[in-house]
Write a structure and sequence with these properties.
The protein has a six-stranded mixed β-sheet with strand order 2-3-1-6-7-8, with helices on both faces. The chain has a two-stranded antiparallel sheet with strand order 4-5. It is built from 23 helices and eight strands. With about 500 residues, the chain is of the alpha+beta class. Helix 5 packs across helix 6 and helix 7 crosses helix 16. The two termini are about 50 Å apart.
Amino acid sequence: MAALEEFIQDNVRLPSPPGIALRILEAVKAESSSYAGLARIISSDPALAARILKVANSSYYALPKKVDSIEKALTVLGVETLKNIALSFVIAKEMRGFAEGGFDFNLFWRRGVTAAVSAEMLGRSLGRRGDESFVSALLQDIGVVLLFLCRPEEYLRVLDGKRESGLPVQDLERQTFGFDHQDLGAEVLKRWGLPQSIYGPIAYHHRTAEAPEDLRPRAELLGLSDMVSSGYHGKNGSGKMNGIRELLTEKHGIGQEQATALIDAVAEKTLEVLTSFEIDPGTMKPYSQILQEANEELGRLNLSYEQLVMEYKQAKEQAERLAKELGEANGRLREMAFKDGLTGLFNHRYFQESMDRELGRALRYGRPLALVLFDIDHFKKVNDTYGHPAGDAVLRDLADLARKTVRSSDMVARYGGEEFAIILPETDRKGAGILADRLRQLIEGMTIEAGGKSIRVTISAGVAAYEPGAEGGEKSKLIGAADKALYNSKSSGRNRITVVQFNPAVSRN
């Protein structure tokens, strides 16, 4: 998948696998020494060893005798089970260390642990239990975290879109990125060296019908565990749980009482395992308690069917309105983070990030990239003569003209003060020079009305470009070259452009 491969190559923020996780995997692969090697690796981390022993002695495994060492845990639980418990702890701890604003990491891992416990317990009941079901379910949505870490602005917009539209998040991810969190999570775990039995089902847990035949049962188990987790930690928990119970009864032949008991047991075991992961369980309650509270609430309300429908409709409309308002507010906040308040252009920070991204793409695919830096000639004189409000009007009108002059694929930014920058993808220095000179002429011919005065200004510009096979393949060099060209234009009389050819510069007005 080209979009996924390009995303992985573009993003330096993709975390590497934890070192101890790699050592655990290598120890298991070395079959002759896996038992002793795995015990040594786990025991080398006292905190990890203590947490594993806590889980081994919990009611989750219900062992007849207390386990007091990693060696004994290996004997009782087996290499594969202990490996998966250790990997779960290590990866969850590592990924929680990246917490940033706008994303609830605690809820994410609470849902992950619930899904992991659910997959293990449902697998036993349905005869689909596999050694990898716990860790595979725990990490099935790890692509969500990776997308947020790499593209926080874009991913928060995806989440806003989900709240507003109600569409599945994976559909909105594919619209935005060209792939979804299933694809990314499976690919990254594969590159980390985890076995296919873990990453394979993850790629299909939201589209089980597309899974290869050998992966489909495990993918379906992940999908079912995700539904249980969503029921416990999402909205309309009782309604979702009723649907899960009906699914277990009608499709899998489990009686209603048994299904209820099984879903209840998931909550009870999850609450115990969450403490081992040091994750706040929040307000998680067993299904039967959720159902009882919902029924009691309905009894207290004593509403007719028509009243319920009316209130539901009103609540839905209000929720949709609030979601839309929240999306708009979040959009404004994100815009404030990378837009200049006066001109509405992108700010210096966003310019630097865009330069990194566009130059990386130009280098990778062997395509040209041009940069134009320009500033207003004698701008201090404008402020001194007409006042700062008039100077602000000049900056706004000039920014608006620059934005209308470039292509939709180009990016105009306020570089600082009266200085501006234009990034021109797929453009060589000749094309950038033509654009810069056209902009210079347009600005020279414009009249700005401010405070009852007519103001005319000119600009000086510097143009530099990276062209495949030429110099300028570093961001600092490209910006430095454009800056020197701008200085040349100003020292040569202003109202002109200088195009850098990485040999003596050429100037024209």
